[in-house]
Automatic annotation (TrEMBL):
Source organism superkingdom: Eukaryota
Domain FAD-binding PCMH-type, residue spans: 14-198
Organism: Mortierella alpina (Oleaginous fungus)
PANTHER family given in the database record: FAD BINDING DOMAIN PROTEIN (AFU_ORTHOLOGUE AFUA_6G12070)-RELATED (PTHR13878:SF91), GULONOLACTONE OXIDASE (PTHR13878)
A molecular function GO annotation: FAD binding
Keywords associated with the record: Oxidoreductase
Listed InterPro entries: BBE, FAD-bd_PCMH, FAD-bd_PCMH-like_sf, FAD-bd_PCMH_sub2, FAD-linked_Oxidoreductases_BP, Oxid_FAD_bind_N
Keyword flag Oxidoreductase: yes
Protein name as it appears in the record: FAD-binding PCMH-type domain-containing protein
UniProt family annotation: Belongs to the oxygen-dependent FAD-linked oxidoreductase family.
Length: 479
């Protein structure tokens, strides 16, 4: 991106780092920046916190519109979208400036006596690509994806105009912003999300299972997968990390008591303890609020690194792949094969993340009101593989690592035909990325893109409409 490797005496090049940045703290500053970029035909990239695995908030030879320092937070107990019918009833809402991070949003919501659907990363922006790309959450099982909870966006469009998009006006744009990806359609300067009543109690099961033998890993993965449907039906959601010698998980259960939680999770733990080479360590803790549970547990995925050398690939796993013993065994074998392939090709610490962040309210969400991949409504799990490398690995070899990850994820694509990948945790080499990220929604998303941004001011890597541009997104391809 900038300096190559770790040689401090080597020349440093600009790479994909924007040439200039506007620190826009007001809507008027956002408008002026957009108008300036459009007038002078300058590539513009939108950034709030910069969390993105595909570099969508940076760009070669670009001007960066940085909205991080607009951090307003407000609440309404009876929010009614602009332009709504007179008989529309108001509902609870949180109103966020574009620079608010989830840690601050969660704290404020707790102080206000409500909860909001957001991410597990505390420093991820609440109004940007996370929610615009779908946004799974520790409480998605209960209240759906973040995109399902959007009530209204205030945006600056490619011509510098301020527009309000909701279910009553600018409906196509509103639909596109609810799952079609950030940095693509407009600059969000205010987001309004539905709030929900506080949780009465939340159980968090945090366990580490260590083992030595490959056969133990295979059997534990298979048993773990076989229980996912039942765990989901009991109300559990959360994250499991699986490596060569351990399985760790942090799962949460809302509005159930400790005894129910322990009885629900114990069969898997008992099975794990039956192996001579396995060691189980963990506990189920009870919390009285979502904020207390989030702040104190592994649901809060905090990483103190400013950045890391990593490429991800993901696959949405349909519920049907977990409903019969044969399909479970097929999936377990595929995960083992994929993990082994990743490790054997220079990734000794290969792991995958098995996330129960679908099902429940996600399955009941609307595929017509949001533009998230319809596969989310059939999925139960989101599986993510990662590949990492050292700072001094040559660029050519980094590219080989990335290509190998694409081959690894193909093992999962082969057993989940018609499903897709999570836009925010996707493989940059994903074949047929338009369908993998957006499914049958892509043609309509492309129409909305051409309608609201006909000149292609807002561009980002593997975003709607980017196929019309060169790989570095600086020149439009000839038609």
């Amino acid at each position: 991106m900038g300096c190559l490797g770790i040689n401090r005496t080597a020349p440093c090049y600009q790479g994909a780092v924007p040439l200039y940045t506007v620190n826009a703290t007001t809507v008027e500053q956002v408008q002026e920046t957009v108008k300036f970029a459009a007038k002078h035909n300058i590539r513009l990239v939108i950034k709030n916190t910069g969390h993105d695995y595909l570099g969508r908030s940076i760009g070669a030879s670009s001007l960066s519109l940085w909205v991080f320092h607009n951090k307003s937070i407000a609440f309404s107990d009876d929010f009614v979208p602009d332009g709504a019918d007179q008989d529309t009833k108001g509902i609870g809402a949180i109103i966020l400036g574009p620079g608010v991070i989830w840690d601050d949003a969660y704290r404020a919501a707790d102080d206000h006596g409500v909860i909001v659907v957001g991410g597990s990363g505390p420093s991820v922006g609440a109004s940007g690509g996370y929610c615009q790309g779908g946004g799974h959450s520790p409480i998605s099982q209960l209240h759906g994806l973040c995109a399902d909870n959007v009530l209204q966006y205030t945006v600056v469009t490619a011509d510098g105009t301020v527009e309000i998009a909701n279910a009553f006006q600018n409906k196509d744009l509103f639909w596109a912003l609810r799952g079609g990806g950030g940095g693509t359609f407009a600059v969000v300067v205010e987001a309004v999300y539905r709030t929900h009543p506080p949780l009465k109690t939340i159980q968090v099961a945090t366990y580490q299972i260590y083992f030595k033998e490959r056969e133990t890993r295979h059997k534990l993965i298979k048993d773990w997968l076989s229980r996912q449907v039942d765990l989901s039906q009991d109300g559990w959601s959360g994250y499991a990390f699986i490596q060569d010698d351990f399985l760790k998980f942090a799962f949460s259960l809302t509005d159930k008591d400790w005894i129910f939680a322990q009885n629900s999770i114990s069969p898997f733990l008992d099975y794990a303890e039956s192996f001579d080479d396995a060691f189980v360590l963990g506990v189920v803790n009870t919390y009285s609020s979502f904020w207390d549970a989030y702040a104190a547990s592994k649901l809060r995925m905090e990483d103190k690194n400013a950045g890391m050398n990593v490429v991800l690939g993901s696959r949405l796993i349909p519920r049907r792949n977990l409903e019969t013993p044969d399909r479970v065994e097929e999936l377990a074998d595929a995960l083992m094969k994929a993990q082994d392939a990743s490790r054997d090709y220079g990734n000794p610490n290969a792991y995958f993340l098995s996330q129960i962040v679908a099902g429940g309210a996600v399955a009941n969400g609307s595929s017509t009101e949001t533009s998230v991949h319809p596969a989310w409504r059939d999925a139960l799990m989101d599986v993510v593989f990662s590949s990492m490398w050292e700072d001094d690995l040559p660029v050519e070899e980094q590219q080989v690592v990335a290509r190998q990850l694409t081959k690894t994820i193909q093992i999962l694509r082969d057993i989940t035909p018609g499903s897709g990948a999570y836009f925010n945790e996707a493989d940059p080499g994903e074949p047929d990325w338009q369908f993998s990220y957006f499914g049958s929604n892509y043609p309509r998303l492309k129409k909305v893109k051409n309608m609201v941004d006909p000149k292609g001011l807002f561009l980002c890597n593997k975003c709607v409409g980017s196929e019309d541009w060169s790989d570095d997104l600086t020149c439009r391809r000839s038609r």
